[in-house]
Design a protein that fits this description.
By secondary structure, the chain is an all-alpha fold. It is 78% helix and 0% strand. It has helices spanning 2-33, 41-74, 85-105, 111-129, 138-161.
Length: 167
């Protein structure tokens, strides 16, 4: 059972880091793709591969999280993960990533808001998994994410505006 928990923790951390890295690669690829004002077939194929990597990272993150919750229940852990603010924040951020990418694909939100929200959520999850976010209440974590997300959306919007066919 301990080996399963170790593997689940490793998969969760690797998935979070791959997701955050994939978000960075996706942003850079998008910057390059819009440089000439259109996305050609090769650029679209490259962006599709990045989307697939992000989908696998999200699947790994959610499956590992489920395994950790079930293993804590089976082992009768004194503090089950499902009652911690960190668990619920990661779950909420997974939903935010899924929602923002869905909304982007259906053109329900602007690219700047949708991509920035998903980008900041991936990084927040990665930093939480690497222990770089302080242990706070759910509300404090939520506000921490919202402020960080607003800053990241603004910075990405500004960086995109520097390109010829910007934001």
């Amino acid at each position: 059972m301990d080996a399963l928990i170790d593997v689940a923790v490793l998969v969760q951390a690797v998935s979070a880091v791959v997701g955050a890295g994939g978000a960075v690669v996706g942003e850079i690829s998008y910057f390059r793709a819009i440089g000439d004002g259109r996305i050609d077939a090769a650029e679209a194929a490259h962006l599709a591969v990045i989307a697939r990597v992000l989908r696998y990272a999200m699947s790994g993150l959610l499956i590992a999280s489920f395994v950790l919750v079930v293993s804590a229940y089976v082992r009768a852990s004194s503090v089950p993960p499902a009652v911690t603010s960190g668990y619920w924040m990661q779950t909420l951020l997974a939903v935010v990533i899924i929602w923002s990418t869905w909304a982007l694909s259906r053109r329900r939100v602007t690219f700047a808001v949708g991509a920035g929200t998903a980008f900041s959520a991936w990084w927040f999850i990665a930093l939480m998994n690497l222990g770089q976010v302080p242990a706070l209440s759910f509300g404090a974590l939520l506000m921490y994410y919202i402020v960080a997300s607003i800053i990241i959306v603004a910075v990405l919007y500004y960086l995109r505006s520097l390109y010829p066919h910007g934001a």
